[in-house]
Amino acid sequence: MTFYNWLIKFRTVDLAIGELAQDVYNDAKFPKGSNDYNKLLNYLISTADNDDCVDTFVKAFKFYEISIKGA
């Protein structure tokens, strides 16, 4: 499962991860097929409106890695 597919499950959550998920879902240029942390991070740094988005991504990616290892 890609990070994108994992993340968009949180679109309706009323927390920072939900906002990130909604933003990523609405971004046609987001690298949906990538699981490369650095590629995703650099993309968000270059497009994010604020640092909160990047901070949320860093935390969400750690959670993603843990969750896919247990799958």
Task: Describe the protein's architecture and organization.
There is one protein chain. By secondary structure, the protein is mainly alpha-helical. It has a single domain (3-69), classed as DNA polymerase, domain 1 (Orthogonal Bundle), CATH 1.10.150.260. It is built from 4 helices and no strands. The termini are close together.
Sheet having the most strands:
none
Determine the CATH topology. Answer: DNA polymerase, domain 1
User: What share of residues are in beta strands?
Assistant: under 5%
Q: Please, what is the oligomeric state?
A: single chain
Please estimate the helix content.
55-70%
| Alpha carbon gap, first and last residue | 10 Å
What is the number of strand segments?
A: 0
| CATH architectural arrangement | Orthogonal Bundle
> Rg from C-alpha positions?
11 Å
- Which stretches of 5+ consecutive residues score pLDDT under 50? none
Q: What is the succession of H and E elements?
A: HHHH
CATH homologous superfamily name?
A: YozE SAM-like
Put simply, the count of helices is 4
List keywords for this structure.
mainly alpha, DNA polymerase, domain 1, 71 residues, single chain
SSE arrangement:
Blueprint: H1 3-7, H2 16-26, H3 37-47, H4 51-69
Helix pairs in contact: 2-4, 3-4
Short description:
By secondary structure, the protein is mainly alpha-helical. Helix content is 65%, strand content 0%. The chain starts with a helix and ends with a helix.
